[in-house]
Every structure is written in C-alpha cells, then in structure tokens.
Design goal:
By secondary structure, the protein is mainly beta. It has a domain of 97 residues. It contains 1 helix and 12 strands; from the N terminus they run E-E-E-E-E-E-E-E-E-H-E-E-E.
C-alpha cells in the first residue's frame, strides 16, 4: 500500500460555488484537478502540478473564455504559457522567482493549491483569462494534508 495521498472530494467555496476535486500524489509531486460550478454551469476547470520540492510546476485552466497554460521555466526566472480563445493564441511571458505565486480571482480553492507554501501571489488570473500583476485572490485554509477546506465537504479515496 502506497503512502501517497490519492483523494477526491467536493464542497462549497465561500461564494456558494461548488467545487469537485481530485488529488494524485506520487514521485513526481502532486497533481490537482478541480472544477468550479455556479448554478449548474462550469465557471472553470483547472489542473495544477506541484513538483516534489513543493514548487509550482504547471497550471492549466479551461473556462468559457478559453484555455490558459502557465509554467515556470527551469531556470526559475520566468514563467511562460499562452491563452487560447476563439480569436487565436496570446503568448504569455512574465518575470518569475522561486518565491513568486499565482492566484485565481474568484477561486479560493485553486488559489489555496497554488499558494500552499503561503507565498503572496504576484500574478493573478482574471475571469476572462487575463493575467495581471497583483496580490489578489482569497485562499482557503489548508488542512494538515494540504487540502483546501471547503464548506459541506465530502471526500473519497481515488483507489479502493
């Protein structure tokens, strides 16, 4: 039996939106997947990878506005990606550091995952997939396992 954390769950964000999530932990770190749903409509779905050193490695966000991908470069001094919409592709490139962090406006669950080490967000993903400098983004508290604490939460093992 593995000591890796492999769980799934659901609950509510403070704004009343519903979150469904899964976490697979292994030798390559943690991989989170989640959706945020408002009144039956998907606001966005995300994937975050955290490397074995607990550093942010990749963000993928899909919303009605399009697709966003961000990942730090190996040297840790820049972060790159793109936004894909019905109008085309918009490349993204920002200065970065090992102490930088990302937040997702209006998503305290995703922001908690991205800021698990307590770092202050330096880039904020906006609802229309704009990326701006800032420290915004409310984050949920994390439990002892590093799982964001949702209201009315339920949880299940990914493996039986």
């Amino acid at each position: 039996m593995s000591a890796w954390l492999r769980r799934a769950g659901s609950g509510r964000n403070p704004d009343g939106s519903n979150v469904t999530w899964s976490l697979s932990e292994g030798e390559r770190g943690r991989r989170w997947r989640w959706t945020v749903i408002d009144d039956g409509a998907v606001r966005h779905a995300g994937l975050v990878e955290i490397d074995p050193s607990d550093r942010f490695a990749r963000l993928e966000l899909a919303s009605p506005a399009g697709l966003l991908i961000l990942h730090p470069e190996p040297d840790g001094r820049s972060i790159h990606g793109n936004v894909v919409t019905t109008d085309g592709v918009r490349p993204l490139s920002f200065d970065w550091s090992r102490s930088a962090a990302v937040a997702i406006a209006g998503d305290p669950f995703g922001t908690a995952i991205l800021r698990a080490d307590g770092a202050r967000a330096t880039l904020v993903i906006r609802p229309r997939l704009g990326v701006v400098a800032g420290d915004g983004g409310q984050a949920l508290d994390l439990d002892s396992r590093g799982v964001p604490t949702l209201a009315d939460s339920r949880e299940w093992p990914l493996e039986s």
